[in-house]
Amino acid sequence: MLKKIITLVAVSIFVSATAFALDITSTGTSIGGGTYKPSNGVTVKLFSDATTYAAGASNSKGQKEYATNNSDPKIYYKTATTAGTPSVSAKTWTPDNTWTAQ
Fold first, then answer.
1. What does pTM read for this prediction?
2. 2 by DSSP, 3-state: which?
3. In the chain, how many H helices and how many E strands?
4. Lesser CB count within 10 Å: N end or C end of the chain?
5. How crowded is residue 61: how many other Cβ atoms within 10 Å of its Cβ?
6. Is residue 30 within a helix (H) or strand (E), and if so which, with residue range?
7. For the chain, how far is it from start to end, CA to CA, in angstroms?
8. Structural domain for 9, as ranges
9. For 1, which DSSP code?
10. C-alpha–C-alpha distance, residues 52 and 7, integer Å
11. What range does the record give for the signal peptide (predicted)?
12. What's the rounded mean pLDDT across residues 89-101?
C-alpha cells in the first residue's frame, strides 16, 4: 500500500504543472510520454491546473480510498463509498470530517 501512496504523490506533483482531469486504471494511461499503470483493480483520479491539484485512489477489491491535494502535505484515507471509485471530483477537493490524516 505504501508503494501506491508514494506513486499517487509523485503523479500528483507531476500533474500539478498542467491543466487536466484524468482517470487512470490498471489498463494504463499515457502521462508525459510514459505509461502510468497502477496495480490491478486500482483507479486513480487526478485533477490539476498550474497551481492546484487533487488526487484520489482506491482499489476495487479494498475498503479504503486515499486522497491528497496541493494545500496540505498529508495523505488522507476513509472507507470507500464504492470500492474502486475515488470520490475526489475536482482540483479544489479538501478533506471533510469523513477523512482521516495518515
1. 0.74
2. helix
3. 1, 8
4. C
5. 11
6. strand 29-31
7. 13
8. 2-101
9. -
10. 18
11. 1-21
12. 92
Report the distance separating Cα 76 and Cα 98, nearest Å: 10
Task: Return the residue matching grid coordinates 463509498.
Answer: 81
Number of domains in the chain: 1
Bridge partners of residue 59, in order along the sequence = 42
Alpha-carbon gap, residue 9 to 15, rounded angstroms: 10
φ, ψ at 47 (rounded to 5°) = -135, 135
The pLDDT tens digits of the residues spanning 66-90 come to: 999 999 989 999 998 888 888 888 8
56/75 Cα distance (integer angstroms): 9
SS3 of 100, please?
strand
Which of 97, 102, 5 is closest to 56 using CA atoms?
Answer: 5
Contacts of 93 by beta carbon, 8 Å cutoff, 6+ apart: 47, 54, 56, 67, 69
Report which DSSP code applies to 27. T
Alpha-helix residue ranges (DSSP H) falling in 1-102: 2-15
At residue 36, what is the residue type? Y
Q: Which residue has the cell 480510498?
A: 65
